[in-house]
Amino acid sequence: MSSQEIEVLVVGAGQAGVAMSDHLTDRGIPHLVLEKGRIAERWRSGRWDSLVANGPAWHDRFPKLEFETVGADDFAPKEDVADYFVAYTRLIDAPIRTGVEVTRVVRNSDRPGFTVQTSDGEVQARYVVAATGPFQVPVIPAVVPADSGHTQLHSGDYRNPAQLPDGGVLVVGAGSSGVQIADELRRSGREVWLSVGPHDRPPRRYRGRDFVWWLGVLGKWDLSAPPQGAEHVTIAVSGADGGHTVDFRELAASGITLVGRTEAFVDGRMRFAPDLARNVAAGDANLFALLDEADAYVTRNGLDLPEEPEARILGADPASLTDPVLELDLAAAGITTIVWATGFRTDYGWLQVDAFDENGRPAHQRGVSTEPGVYFLGLPWQSRRGSSFIWGVWHDARHIADQIQIQRGYLAYDQQAALAAEGAVL
Ligand SMILES: Cc1cc2nc3c(=O)[nH]c(=O)nc-3n(C[C@H](O)[C@H](O)[C@H](O)COP(=O)(O)OP(=O)(O)OC[C@H]3O[C@@H](n4cnc5c(N)ncnc54)[C@H](O)[C@@H]3O)c2cc1C
């Protein structure tokens, strides 16, 4: 690929890039997808070994293809998810080139479109879609110095318990990744501490339906912005072992010590905020609120779904909740490793166009950026809550394809008018 011209260049072949290709193909729009690794690379090499999808296979997929390797209600292992997207690219005959990194995109000054530099030559593109993922660069808060003597790694680099040095583990962050990793480490026989911040914990299943179904019928996947005050609230769900509701009291009963938000590290001692009980109570309230909404939906629609009062029963509060640890000498507690399940940020250093706000964040409306011809796809809350998830990105890709088609339509009109004018002169 020394030099090539293409109408639409899609950067990244994760689920977002594949969805984009699907909709562009449906509209007959010529395009090329460049992926620096393999198709769905992050599902292969950016997740821990035992990870399964958080949503059941009937939901966490694109409309044109079902999972063949697992049942509809099962949670697909991460390799199956990656294989699914590879199968999808074959189904739609997606024009993808793997092993090619996009290193720079700049707007042309002397002609329409963009010059795209890649690890394999240059591409001229009229439109560019940045589909490089919502979770690109691991974020580790600057709390513990690198030379503290503790092994520190991000959840994105965690693979399995055997990877860690012997000893106890502090897992910071109680979203889906943190709780699943803490649970796995505890089951492997480790001493585990879990630092719990604000979270939602929807029921895995309620009245016979998975939470993804409830979020769908209650319109919550479609929310256009996080509820006010809940912008930094993580969601704790798990498809592990067939799926179960994340229950912090159960995690504590299994031997995990719960602590509040990790705040500071001074002289070998970790300090935790006195907010554990509040965070757990808010998570319980979120669970109960969803159960209430689900019950109201059942009544309103006259559905025959079995009642489930036991979903509202909470276990006894563990000691770590009633008498929380606020400071812990890590070495004395035998903690050798800290796993930071503290999220990711984006990095668009390669996209050198006017598509970012003063904080460097994508400036866009539903993925249509402030730089004409540049689009984002797969951003958290791009158009709705589901935007960064498998289910949602396919719908956002349809919108971006529509927008590109609309712009092409205007340009085609211009060209027709110019040709007609030329004809009149002649
Ligand atoms: C632990 C974890 C579990 C998750 N589980 C689920 C789940 O069960 N269900 C669900 O719906 N969602 C889940 N998600 C959320 C989301 O589905 C995934 O993060 C998914 O990988 C996002 O897909 P994407 O295509 O937007 O981005 P990515 O999968 O990150 O794909 C982006 C691609 O772009 C490539 N790339 C990046 N930069 C360049 C470049 N400069 N040039 C060329 N290529 C480039 C990367 O190699 C990558 O393949 C999970 C996320 C995490 C972190």
Task: Report on the architecture of this protein.
- By secondary structure, the chain is an alpha/beta fold.
- It has 2 domains: 3-136 and 346-422, FAD/NAD(P)-binding domain; 139-340, FAD/NAD(P)-binding domain, CATH 3.50.50.60.
- 29% of the residues lie in helices and 21% in strands.
- It contains 9 helices and 23 strands.
- Strands 1, 2, 3, 4, 5, 6 and 23 form a 7-stranded mixed beta sheet that branches. The chain has a 5-stranded parallel beta sheet with strand order 8-19-9-10-15. Strands 16-17-18 form a 3-stranded antiparallel beta sheet, with no helix packed on it.
- Strand 16 and strand 17 form a beta hairpin.
- Helix 1 (15-26) runs parallel beside helix 9 (390-425).
- The structure holds flavin-adenine dinucleotide (FAD).
- Flavin-adenine dinucleotide binds at residues 11-17, 34-37, 41-43, 47, 51, 53-55, 60, 101-102, 131-135, 177, 350, 378, 388-391, 393.
- Flavin-adenine dinucleotide is lined by residues 11-17, 34-37, 41-43, 47, 51, 53-55, 60, 101-102, 131-135, 177, 350, 378, 388-391, 393.
